[in-house]
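Students often ask why we bother predicting the structure of a whole assembly rather than each chain alone. The short answer is interfaces. A chain on its own may look different once its partners are present, and contacts between molecules only exist in the joint model. In this exercise we take two input lines together and write out one structure for the complete complex. Read the inputs first and try to guess which parts will touch.
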Amino acid sequence: MQKIPHTKLNATMNLIIFLFITLYTSCVYSYNKIIPRFPSSIIHPENPFSTSTSNNKLYKTKYFTQILDHFNYNPQSYQTFQQRYLVNDKLWGGVANSSNFPIFVYTGNEGDIEWFTQNTGFLFEIAPHFKALLVFIEHRYYGKSIPYGGDKDVAYSNASTLGYLSSEQALADYATLIIDLKKNLTAIDCPVVVFGGSYGGMLAAWFRLKYPHVAIGALASSAPILNFENITSPYSFNNIITQDFRSEGETCYKTIKRSWKLIEETAKHPKGLEKLRKSFRICKNYINAEALANWISTAYVYTAMTDYPTPSNFLNLMPAYPIKQMCKAIEDPRPGEDTLEKLYKSVNIYYNSSGNVKCFDLEDHSDPHGLGGWTWQACTEMVMPTDGNNEDSIFPASTWDYNDRRQYCKQNFNIEPRPNWITTEFGGHNIERSLGRFGSNIIFFNGLRDPWSGGGVLKNISESLIAIIAKEGAHHVDLRFSSNEDPEWLRDVRRQEINIIKNWLSPYYKDLLETF
Amino acid sequence: MQKIPHTKLNATMNLIIFLFITLYTSCVYSYNKIIPRFPSSIIHPENPFSTSTSNNKLYKTKYFTQILDHFNYNPQSYQTFQQRYLVNDKLWGGVANSSNFPIFVYTGNEGDIEWFTQNTGFLFEIAPHFKALLVFIEHRYYGKSIPYGGDKDVAYSNASTLGYLSSEQALADYATLIIDLKKNLTAIDCPVVVFGGSYGGMLAAWFRLKYPHVAIGALASSAPILNFENITSPYSFNNIITQDFRSEGETCYKTIKRSWKLIEETAKHPKGLEKLRKSFRICKNYINAEALANWISTAYVYTAMTDYPTPSNFLNLMPAYPIKQMCKAIEDPRPGEDTLEKLYKSVNIYYNSSGNVKCFDLEDHSDPHGLGGWTWQACTEMVMPTDGNNEDSIFPASTWDYNDRRQYCKQNFNIEPRPNWITTEFGGHNIERSLGRFGSNIIFFNGLRDPWSGGGVLKNISESLIAIIAKEGAHHVDLRFSSNEDPEWLRDVRRQEINIIKNWLSPYYKDLLETF
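Now the answer. The structure tokens for the assembled complex follow.
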């Protein structure tokens, strides 16, 4: 996921947009020349399914001929593209003898569906219990699901071709594909439950709301569906990051808070940039104080999102509780380490836990997970104010200014964002009131250490629109593979989720029996 | 609403498509040269609001700048057009002193919104009771709400410009307009209830399902949301018409049933067409057996739809219980009237109750209510199988053949219909199961004498998705102006509807109070 640039260094550092799952990848913005960097060394998640051999065992890859535009009928809307989806039917109970075992569908995010699949172990682990068919659908314009004959250069060339990249079209894709798949499997009566994390979680929740005839329920994990307009404070995102670090130590928090000025000042000295380069092991090709600060802040932001209780390799290879480790590096330095060294050790937790990286390339703009389309989405409908920083923020104070976004989008795509559209289409204002007596069967999971949790649904809306909160949880931690080291609260979250899903299925089967 | 043509005379006669509210208008189809005719003498409804002076008192006309394409972001999607809406705020209680009186919105159908407004007296009559603001929104591409600078010739010129005429875009228009209007009126907390009849009723129901954050409930009158794919039998529509006539007398039914052959045979005789012309008072310019049969069947179809218990002037000026009158003309003829004369007297009930028409012009293709866009909608998403006729049908036996539609649409618009799209987007299959535990606050009214009732929701889905049925009711009779002659069952239907709407508002206000 690409970062939307800012005008000022201060603001840039915490302008963490639309990453969700995901990352500041790459991409130089001519706008302010700030280049958040994603080290190419950490592309491959190290889980049991990380090799192509085991992926072959995990799922079969299929393609569906999808229509480009579901909502209009002009000739260009009839174009089609190949949408990728992954299927695991090994544990599925099927439809024999009038049984109708469930279908669990992951509503793909803004990136390669294989990556998300490999990071959604929860589904593989609960499938045996439910005898469920697993389907992971890739979001249009990502991974291998590229319109215009699969030619990404064409699809991403301009607003005319990118124009069909929207969440409404993606949801309609999912509905169309699921209905067709069920017909082909003669599984029309099998209940479908949708799952998703981050943007995929938003899609899962919205899918249940908009297509209740296709999915009987949704688990929306870390889905900040309220992070639009003024529903959630634009300071919320960075406040949570601040709190995450502050909870590990006041010294840690203050050291980072003061570091931005230190870096700025150091850079002004003769040989200051060389000092910074040496302290942070930046490669020879390029250095610049703003880019460095941005690179550092990126580490804090994504570590806050992935502050998991066990070692992980989602964005990067990371130890358990990485924020704690970052703060430890700052608060318990080795003898002789100066502040810059301490800071380096802290960001090293994020960028180089493997210890393999010799130097860091601030010009590395690789996008290993194919998240590039998010910039477009952020410039059209996904206008999510997240980058305000109040005086207490761990990042320099700044305000959210919609005009920055607007100007960026004008410059890069010659497009005008529609910042009010998502709430028009999906709601969000006074959600307790508007959904308190409407809809059913959605779980909103949020881990409160996740900066996106500020835009999530944190209170039950009704008896069956349920919020599950984990005080110590991070970004869709519930959807990850379990491990023997998982803390009790995480096991408990997953148990709750499984029980709730069971409680959606039982009445469905009861209704089904009554129909016949 | 335009008729979609058929290949055979028999089939054509009962192919009543997409008229809903509405009419076989006009338009020569080169395909089979059948021209259903709508006499231009009956354009103006005769109700208290029929003159332009009283319309001025009834509502103010306003325009809203609407975006052409809500779901995509290519440059052409940013085009705008002026959407007309009518407002009556004279009875509105407003928002003073933290009161939040309701807003009743009519979700416009496939035609001029003034016409529908004038035929939706129910809203004007209940507004004082609720102190409600009334808003009637015109559907895009109809009336004065024409994209492409209001130039209908351009907007209707080809599939590229017509492509944005879809129900999903219309619903998004309504959401966008309502939210903006509420902001402008500082009426954000005022509850909105949507109302609609026929296609407008489908839109009202779908609006509540898709935009529950905008409307707290919907009265969907005579909304055949189940008349898609194979959910409703394609024979249902004409079976109901058959039953309507048969219930008034077996002789009436049999006479009409045999008449198609009689007309065909008569036309074959020398001077046969002249005999038909004389019997049916057809003007000199044009006659043809197929066109005549079609013109006659049109009368039966629309009379079945508007078989109201009091005199009406919706489609045409008509007496109370017009089917009864039609059958009376057949069963109690004046001395000396032959069968053709009897048939003429019966269709005269529909075409010439005023007695003013001297001769009927089978080539009259006027479209007084601007319903022309329905043909396009019927060729894209509104593929509603209605024109099967079994052996008992009052019309000649025929089967529904999707390929007829497909071929017609190919020929006329070079467009491929998407017959499965509506059920993908809005559901419909097993509606009790899919909505039994989802959604709330919709009334589905159906009058069982209305041929469209076969595609309606006739059973309660849940405690608050309620079916109201009137055995003797016709097409959205509940939404019409009341009269002193209204039968008790109709008064009772309206009383029920008012009570249910009250029961949506009370909890809304309770929730609102609790929020503050």
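Check your guess against this: Chain A is about 40% helix and 10% strand.
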